[in-house]
Each structure stands twice: as structure tokens, then as C-alpha cells.
Amino acid sequence: MADKLKIKISIADRVYPLTIQPKQEEGLRKAAKKIEAMIKQFEQSYAVRDKQDVLAMCALQFAAQTEQQGIDKSTEMLEAEDKLKSLNDLLQSHLAN
After folding, report:
1. pTM, 2 dp
2. How far is residue 4's CA from residue 2's CA, in Å, rounded to a whole number?
3. Does the record carry Cell division as a key word (predicted)?
């Protein structure tokens, strides 16, 4: 427990006490700031009756971003594999001569 850090993170006007590894602190604080900024943006852009609605939209936004990054990486990997295969085929044809 000595290597753990106790912090408090505020999200949507609620404070959450956390016990974490020190190396996690920066990421958690940045994530909380992003969530707070997104909450503020949703509240300014839409008629929001309940914080739960805003938090659900934030969760959806972050999950969609994560999923899209995975899709983009998969597409990039397939494109890289195609290019490497073409390059390999070209090298093999030159080496065969």
C-alpha cells in the first residue's frame, strides 16, 4: 500500500476518491479534464435535463473514438501489408533475373 497514491477526481460535480499507482495519476487527471470539457460542451450545445444523459453521451463519444482508432489501425495495417507484399514481389522478381 506504500507505493499507492490517494487522489480525488471530480467529474460532473461529484468527487471520486481513488487509490492508484503514481504513474496513473497524470492520465487519470487528463481524462477527468477531458470529460469535464465534454460535459460542458454537451450542456452548452443541447438542452440537457439530467447529468446522467450528459455522462451517457460522454461515454458514447469516448467509446466511439476508441473503436474508430481500432478500425483505423486495422485499415492502416492492411494497407501496410499490401504495400509490403507488393514490394516483396517486386524484389523477388528483380532477384530472379
Report:
1. 0.68
2. 5
3. yes
